[in-house]
Amino acid sequence: MSIPQAGRKDKPVYLNGQPLGNTYRRLNDGDRKCDDTTVKRMLAEQVQDSRDTYICNRYGLNDIDLESLHAYRNQFASYKSGHPWVGADDTEFLHLLGAWREDRETKENGLTLAGLLMFGQWPAIMTCAPMYFVDYQEQPYEPNTSVRWLDRVVPDGTWSGNLFDFYRKVIRKLTADLKVPFHLQGDKRVDDTPIHQALREALVHAD
Questions:
Q1: 92: closest CA among 104, 101, 82?
Q2: d(C-alpha 100, C-alpha 110), whole Å
Q3: Which run of H or of E encompasses 26?
Q4: How many other C-beta atoms lie within 10 A of the C-beta of residue 43?
Q5: DSSP E strand stretches across 65-135
Q6: Rounded distance, CA 136 to CA 154, Å?
Q7: What is the pLDDT along the chain (207 residues), one digit of tens a residue?
Q8: Model-level pTM?
Q9: Which secondary structure element, helix H or strand E, spans residue 117, and what is its range?
Q10: Nearest to 205 by CA among 15, 42, 28
Q11: Whole-angstrom distance, CA of residue 144 vs CA of residue 68
Q12: To the nearest 10°, the Cα dihedral for 62, 63, 64, 66?
């Protein structure tokens, strides 16, 4: 008998009516009890799903930073050249990503919060999500120095401030002197490293 994996909205899976201390996660070799931190993350992600798909009323393509979107599309096409989404126009591509949504009941349609944060322009992001802020700091090695940071990336008006551009800026700094092994996946080179993966995870799970 095959039991499908629970979706994010269905997690945590727990016993005795109490998630803390009674939640289990299925791994390859069996079910393992989750610690409280993992359970709280699962509970938070239940809410996160609905927040990500929230339609930002009256926000549209004019609020998208097209340079960011097209840079993402170029990367997508490079890695998945034969994918049917490559030929979609910008609005349809956003829809396919979940960055644009239509509510079938209310007929409301527009950018989702996830789409705006991912590809939006700073003024639009601040209007819709005023608590949003991204901040990368390179800290000095000496703990007692008066220097607070050596390098910093924050939305300062010189770039879009969206998540995709933040990722692009920070990953270049983190990997500037990093040796990237030559690895092929099929006929394409894969330049992914644990640092790339860690930064993506940090952005995905940021509260």
A1: 101
A2: 5
A3: strand 24-27
A4: 15
A5: 100-102, 109-111
A6: 7
A7: 566 677 666 677 778 878 888 888 877 667 788 888 887 777 766 655 567 888 998 899 999 999 999 999 999 999 888 999 999 999 999 999 999 999 888 888 999 999 999 999 999 999 999 999 999 988 887 777 788 888 889 999 999 999 999 999 998 888 776 665 555 455 455 566 666 666 566 655 555
A8: 0.67
A9: helix 113-119
A10: 42
A11: 39
A12: 50
Cα separation values, 78 from 65, 83, 150, 167, Å: 20, 10, 34, 18
- For residues 116 and 118, what is the distance between their CA atoms, to the nearest angstrom? 5
Return the domain boundaries, the chain. Answer: 1-52, 53-204
Instruction: List, as own/partner pairs, every contact residues 10-19 make where C-beta atoms lie below 8 angstroms and the sequence separation is at least 24, other chains included.
Output: 11/42, 11/45, 11/46, 12/39, 12/42, 12/43, 14/39, 19/43
Q: Do 86 and 46 touch, CB atoms closer than 8 A?
A: no
Cα gap 154→36, rounded to integer Å: 32
| Half-sphere exposure (Cβ direction) of 180: Cα atoms closer than 13 Å | 15
Report the distance separating Cα 95 and Cα 89, nearest Å. Answer: 10
